Amino acid sequence: WRSLIRMDQEQARRLFSGGAFLVLLDVPQNTEIGIDYNSWRSGPNFMGIKMIPPGLHYIYYSAVNNTGQAAPRTGFFHYFRKQETLVYRWDANNEDVTDDGVTMEMVARISAGIRDIDKQLGAYPYDSLKTWYSLTNHISESLMTRLQPLNQKITSVTQLLTDQTKDHMGLEEQDHMIMGGTFAGVGDFPSLAKVPALSQKDCLHLIKDHTASIRFTAIPSQKHPEGSSPSDISRHNMDLTYTLTSMLTGCYDNGVDDLLGEVQFAFVCFLIGHGNKLVRTATSISSHFSIQCTKHLTSGRRWCGCYVLVRKP
Length: 313
Description:
This protein is α+β, with helices and mostly antiparallel strands. The chain is 36% helix and 17% strand.
């Protein structure tokens, strides 16, 4: 946690009093824990991260076995408030973090005594904060909420269910499985990493868990107005201004900012969440609208930021 070394005491006190806290209980030693651009292996006394700047952040983690091999990465976005204390505990059975069993009274108690565990909290690495802001500056809290999976977890492998599991899903979850049009999976290939021991017959009936899919906006398959002539259809398929305008007015509350935010969201999930398939989502949106966007972006800075984003290695 290099940021602590480079801070004077006054600066550290100011950031401690104005920042947020992520408390992770019972995390096994050597677990990979990360926030934004930085990740570490947890030590024996690790309990979380302090001095987190208010705003959007991406928290992620991977269980590590006895040989040092890390499991596929899991993460989630969270919009931190000033002095907020977010508490999770480690679920050893599922090798995942959960808020099950975390009561409001527990959160209040930990928040009130946060200074008592100060030495067990790593400091947020401010060295990379400017880069993180430039990568996520168009992702609003409302857009984050709309895009995150229904189960609130973003995984680097496709999550699978048996037919019996789907039958026991809540009606609300099943209703939301069709939100946002076509879902885009996170992993390139189905993984059985977190599926309990199943018979060969059961494996043949595994289905994709759509509650674990990011709810990207579907690009309309029809790229021309109803009643268009053949020549107009050809023109609209080469010039996607109509498609872009329809999406900006019908799908995005904040217009171009939400469009760019969705590209940024996909890119963060690819770059930091290790969702290899998601770079295709980001480049698909940008390749569809790279020329047409220039007609809608009133700020050259926003267009430059989008261009740099999709070309970043």
